[in-house]
Write a structure and sequence with these properties.
Layout (H helix, E strand, L loop, with lengths): L1 E9 L8 H4 L1 E2 L11 E2 L11 E8 L2 E5 L2 H11 L7 H8 L15 H4 L1 H12 L8
Antiparallel strand pairs: 1-4, 2-3, 4-5
Length: about 130
């Protein structure tokens, strides 16, 4: 199902669709202004910037700026029943609405149980590959 994969470089790792939902700021500040995150923020590769792994799965391009983002995507998509984006956005506790959650941005075809299981399986092969 993987059509191709490639690495792009970005000026800011926070621009990846899942970054906000996976990397939580440690100190009380605006998310983009935080100095530390849990899990830790990815590192830049010198002047190139931050690596963003792009994976094309049958026409849907997934973009990850950290391995933790891939792991979370696999974890959620592997569930027998998908959680609602309201449930997932509440876990973040930021007041950011469910319509901005990464899961709500995926096409409905990817969320179908058989396709979702295959996507999760294909993505799991990329665990540990961001930044390598």
């Amino acid at each position: 199902m993987v059509t191709r994969s490639w690495t792009e470089y970005a000026n800011d790792w926070r621009d990846a669709p899942m970054a906000y939902w996976v990397h939580v700021e440690n100190e009380p500040s605006q998310w983009r202004d935080a100095k530390t995150y849990n899990p830790p923020a990815p590192s830049a590769h010198g002047r190139k910037g931050f690596p963003v792994l792009c994976i094309d799965l049958a026409g849907v391009v997934f973009r990850f700026s950290s391995n933790e983002q891939i792991a979370e995507c696999v974890r959620v998509l592997s569930r027998k029943s998908l959680p609602t984006t309201r449930q997932l956005s509440t876990l973040r506790g930021s007041g950011t609405g469910p319509n901005s959650h990464w899961l709500s941005r995926l096409p409905a075809t990817v969320k179908a149980p058989k396709i979702r299981a295959k996507v999760a399986q294909d993505l799991s092969h990329f665990l540990g590959k961001v930044g390598t």
